[in-house]
Amino acid sequence: MKFPGRRKIKHYFPVNADNRFDRESMTFGHAHTFVCGIDQNIVDIYAHVDESVLADFGLNKAMSQLMSNETASRLYQFLQGYDLIDSQYAGGTIGNTLHNYSILADDRSVQFGVMSQNIAVGDYAYGYLCNTSSKVDLSYLQPVEGPIGRCYTLITPDGERTFGISPGLMNALTPEYISEEVIQNSSALMLCAYTLGDASLPIYNATLKAAELACKHQVPVVLTLGTAGLVDAIKDSLTAFIEKYVTVLAMNEDEAASLTGHKDPLLACEVALDLADMILLTAGPDGLYVAGHTETELARVTDNPILSAGISDFNRYEFSRPLLKASCDHPMKVYSHINPYMGGPEKIKNTNGAGDGALAAVIHDMAANAFHQQVLPTSGKHNRTWLTYSSFSQICKYANRVSYEVLAQSSPRLSRSLPEREDSLEESYWAK
């Protein structure tokens, strides 16, 4: 497990005279920390085609539309036969997040979902496996006789993009393939609202089972919202699900507005904190927000300039660490914001996955906290049920940096870890 940022060797495990780490302890080197998640496994397929191809396969130009499995298979064979496929990327919100987490943490994650039973070298299912970090454990995937999801991006000579989506059997995951042992021993369970969109699908019941097991074993549940349209469609049931199961809620500004009724990101975070313990809200060119709860007596005042927007002096206590609201005697809401790293990349190659990258950073910090607690349970960093290893402010910085890295590349999945950085004085405070 890598810790977020770079620790000088002598301070890698913060200690003091009373809780110095016993280097002969069997815990060190044998602490196993991982996260898990459920995804609708899908492959993003990019191809340059003539407009005649769109007509031949019944696709409306510049629109996003559903395709039957039969049509999707014919299209794939056509694109392969004429060597028109530019690239095939493993997709899916949770799949992206798990992959990025494993790259950042250099540690294991476990993915639940489905995978085609029969895979040929070079096909889309093979591409999915090749584009996924070897640290992501795919041994719990449910085998299916048929295709996983496929999303075609067809680019015509004028540069216009047409999208064709074929769900395949990506929603066929059954509750039997959800391992209680995996969830019980994980540091977090990641879910996406897409799997909650249709109660008649097997994956819906698999998601409910996973959420119930996570709550049973006190494992934090992280939910990312799909689209604003999905939130509007299932708002009542989604709100009830969040209130009952969710610890950390991730969303963009449009999804936040649909859920809370507030277009102002800060006000949306304020309302969302009545549903979940912690919020990650990405706001595109306006940066991102992290909000949560902390104990009033333990709140730390920031050294950064005090900011006001929808909430006055909203970042005053951003040097505090997030807590479960139920763990606070006198809970207070805390907010932190950061503008895009270095103003954002000079050239944005891909906006798909930036939010997933930011969420991977948050999950990494949560897992680092769980790992450190296993290795050094007597540390002062674990005198409460803290959700993360770092403060609201540091989480903002880390999530922002990962998001930048995704925006600057073509794929939503990181190919390498981030450049290392030194600890700040703020982090070293918590090392005492």
UniProtKB/TrEMBL annotation:
InterPro entries: Carb_kinase_PfkB-like, PfkB_dom, Ribokinase-like. Residues 133-297 form the Carbohydrate kinase PfkB domain. Keywords: Kinase, Transferase. Residues 413-432 are annotated as: Disordered. The keyword Kinase applies. GO terms for molecular function: kinase activity. Signal peptide: none annotated. Belongs to the carbohydrate kinase PfkB family. PANTHER family: CARBOHYDRATE KINASE PFKB DOMAIN-CONTAINING PROTEIN, SUGAR KINASE. This is Guanosine kinase.
